[in-house]
Amino acid sequence: MEQEAKTILPQVTSEEKVPVIEINGLVKTFGENNHVLKGINLSLNKGEDLVILGRSGSGKSITIKCIVGLVVPDEGEIKVFGQNVLNLVTHQLNEVRIRIGFLFQNSALYDSMTVKQNLAFTLKRHASDLTSQEIETHINAVLESVGLAEAINKMPSELSGGMRKRIALARTLILKPEIILYDEPTTGLDTITSREISELILDLKKKNNTSSIIITHDMACAKLTADRIIILKDGVIHAEGSYQELEESEDQWVRSFFI
């Protein structure tokens, strides 16, 4: 089957804002009355960390799941690297997905596999042309980048919550994604480990120039990682700005996130 050529983003200066994700009029309803998204419009720029805040059930996770096709919206347009992913056939959507890393809230590691096997599984599935030595090299490098080279032969059950999150992040990074979607990256972690994960997110952006959307309830994580924040309320974007701008907002509901 003939495949379309992949979109190549132009080289730009750091001052220019190039959207790698553009969402327009995103609507999603579950059942008859659960209107989760009511026309979301947002963009993610190249090299930006965008944090999405909102109360539970406000549609934060649904929004990023729509981006990678895990949830199909009722209406709207989602452009990733300039392509409307809602119009792509399966093999075209898979090409886009390879360029997007998704860190699930529960880490989603395969419990019956070692750390090495978890990472190798991802490589073999999406980069089948790699040799065994190349796979080994990739695994060692990505574990080194998250500070867990020594965990290569451990089972997920032998890892702490923070270590599991780092391994899940390593699995996300191993295909060298240009965009990373983080779904509650620090949930369930203690304060020190949460900060370590937040600092790792920042470090990875600096090293790899990734663009990220970070869904979180952790305001310390938001403050440390966000270039820009949007807050969802009742299925729409209620506020947008920097951490400081929103913290000083005259809107009492917005300020309540920062208390």
From TrEMBL:
Q: Which organism is it from?
A: Flavobacterium gillisiae
- Name of the protein this chain belongs to: Phospholipid/cholesterol/gamma-HCH transport system ATP-binding protein
Keywords in alphabetical order, please.
ATP-binding, Nucleotide-binding, Transport
Entry keyword annotation includes ATP-binding: yes
Gene3D superfamilies assigned to the protein according to its UniProt record, in alphabetical order: P-loop containing nucleotide triphosphate hydrolases
One GO MF term attached to the UniProt entry: ATP hydrolysis activity
Keyword Disulfide bond: yes or no? no
Identify the PANTHER family for this entry: PROTEIN TRIGALACTOSYLDIACYLGLYCEROL 3, CHLOROPLASTIC
Segments forming domain ABC transporter: 21-259
